[in-house]
Amino acid sequence: MANAASGMAVDDECKLKFLELKAKRNYRFIIFKIHNQQVVVDKLGTPAETYEDFTAALPKDECRYAVFDFDFTTAENCQKSKIFFIAWAPDSSRVRSKMVYASSKDRFKRELDGIQVELQATDPSEMSFDIIKARAI
Amino acid sequence: MYGGDEVSAIVIDLGSHTCKAGYAGEDAPKAVFPSVVGCIDQMDADDDKENNDSETNNNNVDSNKPKGKRRLYVGSQALGFRRDHMEVVSPLKDGVVVDWDIVDSIWDHALKDCLLVDPKEHPMLLAEPSSNTQQQRERTAELMFEKYKVPALFLAKNAVLTSFASGRATSVVVDSGGGSTTVAPVHDGYVLQKAVSSSPIGGEFLTDCLMKSLESKGIVIKPRYSFKRKEIQPGVFQTVDVDFPHTTESYRLYSQRVIASDIKECVCRAPDTPYDESAYSNIPMTPYELPDGQTIEIGADRFKIPDILFNPPLAQTIPGMDNFAEISPSVRGLPQMVIESINRCDVDIRKELFGSILLAGGTASMQQLKERLEKDLLEVESPQAARVKVLASGNATERRFSVWIGGSILASLGSFQQMWFSKSEYEEHGASYIQRKCP
């Protein structure tokens, strides 16, 4: 356990939805939030939705966790997908919420088995589509 | 396990310059006072008598505690009052405790005089430097449980608290405080111990440099106790020097530093490019009024002093700081420290670390410091084409107290209450269990 971890609990629903995203590919993305001292599912995105829809679904001044299933084609013209974990902590959010999300992240991430790439973002430029593409390949 | 509904934890961050203490859940620490204490050896018989007399008078105001053969004076008020033969001593050396009696007296002052709480009733969260050893942590636990009888304790790392408080579990924390500057990479909430680097150049060193530099120009800072200032007519002041032959050298220095550090905070700003004597010889002077009424003018020093953070050998050009030459070869500038520290981390995370460099601590609040560090890092690091981003809270309080604020939020979280190292666990497993509970 990391030093100064918050001990936040994780709702089972988070793990179930994540498994669906991973195995059945039912969702494009899942956004999680911390509510009543546990991590719960906030929003779900259908497979038809795009990365823009996903970023638009993140609140401007509140922290969130999110997973995004990213489809891309490699240089060898091979269809692939990677699952991203994003810790969203915008500068304008309150210190309290930044602290809560950052100190609970390690524990929560461990519950989601199968994350391939992880990034943290404090403004939209840190999770632009180009960065996502660069990290995927 | 501690699990009360009413969480009224106390958070203490004992830094090398100031001690921050307050209630968990609040935005800023209630008590902020110097980490140094006044100390009078009780060897002299007549000295003893004198102190006993004074004790009856100001026992309520000061926190005078006889500790074995010496008496300690803690807190801004007790230190602000000059006493014969009073030495100013610090319990910390390089951020690590060397004198537990003094630390004990500081905690005592914070809890009983400043916060007015009974430690038996409040869980205690202490911030600790990344360099704290196992023995130090166990000693802390023993003292807290045995002497203060706290119901629960937690030790959180400075760097981790700062990192979390800015919403990042992975970052490089550049903590420039009073006594030292520490660069600590944090990954997923763990401090990467092997990559931590520190240097003795902190706010106090810069203050000393400024003082010596002013002295070399013939400006002497008179400590506040060494003169009396009266308004003889409206708007006209008269300053009379007072002589106290028994004042110790360390107290005189302490009082001068208080003033010099205010000058530094008021006028200094980091230069945009490395300091160059000739380029800054003609810059306009900035006035500053000393407590004794004389107005001094500060020119190039405004930029030269902060530049020492970036280029430590610059300190040797200041008359009176020559002894610095002995330690200087091992001391590196801020950008080099950051780069070295990051390069000691795993290759996979370096990019991410360069993208989130966090500034914290009192000295890091210096104007233009963030911009300069970012610029220097970009120049040196451009070949790696890494995204360099230096972050600092726009709010001065948040920047200065980021460690304390992080601790305050953490300790007030409902979910955190299961994480405490409780008194019963201490009684069952002993002090060494702290390593398991607070890794």
Task: Set out the fold topology.
The complex is a heterodimer of chains A (137) and B (439).
Chain A: E1 9-10, H1 12-24, E2 29-35, E3 38-45, H2 51-57, E4 64-73, E5 79-88, H3 95-111, E6 117-121, H4 129-136
Parallel strand pairs in A: 1-3, 5-6
Antiparallel strand pairs in A: 2-3, 2-4, 4-5
Chain B: E1 10-14, E2 18-23, E3 31-34, E4 37-41, H1 45-58, E5 63-67, E6 70-74, H2 76-80, E7 87-89, E8 92-93, E9 96-97, H3 100-114, E10 124-128, H4 134-147, E11 152-157, H5 158-165, E12 171-176, E13 181-187, E14 190-191, E15 197-199, H6 203-216, E16 227-233, E17 236-241, H7 249-267, E18 286-289, E19 295-298, H8 301-310, H9 334-343, H10 347-354, E20 357-360, H11 369-381, E21 390-391, H12 396-400, H13 402-412, E22 421-422, H14 423-429, H15 434-437
Parallel strand pairs in B: 1-10, 10-11, 12-20, 20-21
Antiparallel strand pairs in B: 1-2, 2-3, 4-6, 4-7, 5-6, 8-9, 11-22, 12-13, 13-14, 13-15, 16-17, 18-19
Helix pairs in contact in B: 5-13, 6-7, 6-8, 9-11
Features:
heterodimer, A: 137 residues, alpha/beta, Severin, six-stranded mixed sheet, 6 strands, 33% helix, 31% strand, globular, B: 439 residues, alpha+beta, Nucleotidyltransferase, domain 5, 4 domains, 22 strands, 22% strand, disordered N terminus, actin binding (chain A), ADF-H/Gelsolin-like_dom_sf (chain A)
CATH homologous superfamily caption of chain A: Severin
Biggest sheet strand line-up of chain A = 1-3-2-4-5-6
CATH class of chain A: Alpha Beta
The fold-level CATH name of chain A is Severin
**Estimated share of beta-strand residues of chain B:** 15-25%
Distance between the termini of chain B: 18 Å
Report the major sheet of chain B: 6 strands, mixed
For the sheet with most strands of chain A, the description reads:
6 strands, mixed
Name the poorly predicted regions of chain B: 1-5, 45-63
Structural class of chain A: alpha/beta
> Strand-and-helix sequence of chain A, N→C?
EHEEHEEHEH
End-to-end gap of chain A: 31 Å
